[in-house]
User: What shape does this take?
Amino acid sequence: MATVLPEAGCDLKEWPGETLSVGHAISATLAAPSIDQAKSRIAEVWPGSTRDGVDVNGLPGPLRRRRLLIADMESTIIEQEMLDELADFVGKRAEVEAITEAAMRGELDFEQAINERVALLAGLDAAKLDDLIATRMTYSPGARALVQTMKANGATCALVSGGFTHFTQRVADELGFDEHRANTLEIEDGR
Assistant: This one.
């Protein structure tokens, strides 16, 4: 079984299989013991696939509709880590990265690390959060199609992040997630 998720704009009109999302995703059963062999078979049946950026995801056995998508936001649905981008935006990236590295070494737990990193941003004009979204946040290729395909097939889609609701709310609204969960920044007097 292979689910084929081509880049937006690919021509799927002649592909044999079930359409999951018109122009974005289809499903087809292939007799192939590996993903590489499935990709080769797809290239035989649909020669344009190799130049059109087709992504093949193999699933064992018959297709079962997935009912739930829980997706991490940073470096998955979007291409950035927003706390790092925010720190860079205000000239404190090195300090934030040092705290992150200490947490990765187990010297700080998540709560300590997030509190220390956010403390470095204290006093920041809250309007800068929207500036950051406009100038630095980009969606990962296929993210929109993934959410649209899941929703078109009856799934519930949830977005999660160790970051902030200010960012997850925007992504959830724009891509159509049903829910989002993240930390809430305390904003007082616009800061």
Observations:
- The two ends are 51 Å apart (CA to CA).
- The longest strand covers residues 156-164.
